[in-house]
Amino acid sequence: MSEFYRRPQLSELDLPVGKRVRMHRLLYEHGPGNGRLLILPIDQGLEHGPLNFFPNPDSKYPRYQYELARRGGYSAIALHYGLASKYLRDYAGEIPLILKLNGKTNIPSDDEALSSLTAAVEDAVRLGADAVGYTLFVGSPRQDEDMLQLMEVRAECDRYGMPLVVWSYPRGAAINAKGGRDSFYAVDYAARLAEEMGADIVKVNFPKLNPATDRLCPKPYNDLDITEVEAFRQVVQSAGRALVLVSGGSKIGDEDLLNKVRMSFEAGATGLIFGRNMWQRPLDEALALTAEVKQIIAELD
């Protein structure tokens, strides 16, 4: 490990008071605590439509995810304005809110992906949120619009003392031609870009190593002999002083999910943001799996 890198701790970050207070609530007063994060997202209804709710019909009702977040002891729930304004009142103060500020449907192709604004930082302040979320599509042909939109959101976050969580996702034909969206190259670039744009926390996918497609990545990524944990450790380092969240992605088997938890924290992640892997299950199963995840986090601290 380089002498120039240290995994960021809240006490070491140069944050204005408002951001520090809100980050402290997320990192130490809810969820696993001790500087760790476990976030439950439910932005998929906008991003994917109702199809994700079919495996567990109860999950189409937002109160299901709110209950899972409350009973499971999550650090926060992440969702769009409508689900916050319509349902948060019953859970106010019990579950921290991360308000998603932009989104898109998956009906058009991702070749020129851009998530339009759906809410403002001022909305997050009024709703009592502890952070806002923004999806940045790294490598999309429309990234110039995306980065300008993010710059304006970041300025508002600084104005209001609101932590900024960037969903940093590689997308578009150029990314596909250089190894794909989940390649080490793409995820590493996404982590670095999020910090460069001012993210306080960055959400990324765990990189996948695939010799057949990695050869398309730029040098030296196309010729590295490393494990996935070693690759992700470098992703965490590329994020610098932005805390790193690992995305759960599509639902996978329990053992694969728990292994992902272990690898993520061993590589230096600060937290997890698992949605479908949790709420696509009946409540008792989701709570049991949440408890297993939190046990692993406690053991690895």
Task: Name the features.
single chain; 301 residues; alpha/beta; eight-stranded parallel barrel; two-stranded antiparallel ribbon; 13 helices; 10 strands; 43% helix; 15% strand; globular
Q: Would you write up a description of this structure?
A:
With about 300 residues, the chain is α/β, with parallel strands linked by helices. The protein has 13 helices and 10 strands. The strands form 2 sheets. An 8-stranded parallel beta barrel has the order 1-2-3-6-7-8-9-10, surrounded by 7 helices. Strands 4-5 form a two-stranded antiparallel sheet. Strand 2, helix 4 and strand 3 form a beta-alpha-beta unit. Helix 11 runs parallel beside helix 13. The longest helix has 18 residues. It is globular, with a radius of gyration of 18 Å.
Helix content: 40-55%
| Multimeric state | single chain
- What best-fitting shape do the alpha-carbon axes yield? globular
Order of helices and strands: HEHHEHEEEHEHEHHEHHEHEHH
- Work out the number of β strands: 10
The structure class reads alpha/beta
Radius of gyration: 18 Å
Mean of pLDDT: 96
Strand content: 5-15%
Describe this structure in a few short sentences.
It is built from 13 helices and 10 strands. With 301 residues, it is an alpha/beta fold. Strand 6 (131-138), helix 6 (143-160) and strand 7 form a beta-alpha-beta unit.
Topology, please?
Layout: H1 17-29, E1 37-41, H2 44-48, H3 62-72, E2 76-79, H4 81-87, E3 97-100, E4 102-103, E5 116-117, H5 121-127, E6 131-138, H6 143-160, E7 164-170, H7 173-176, H8 184-196, E8 201-204, H9 211-214, H10 228-238, E9 243-247, H11 254-266, E10 271-273, H12 276-279, H13 283-300
Helix pairs in contact: 3-13, 8-10, 11-13
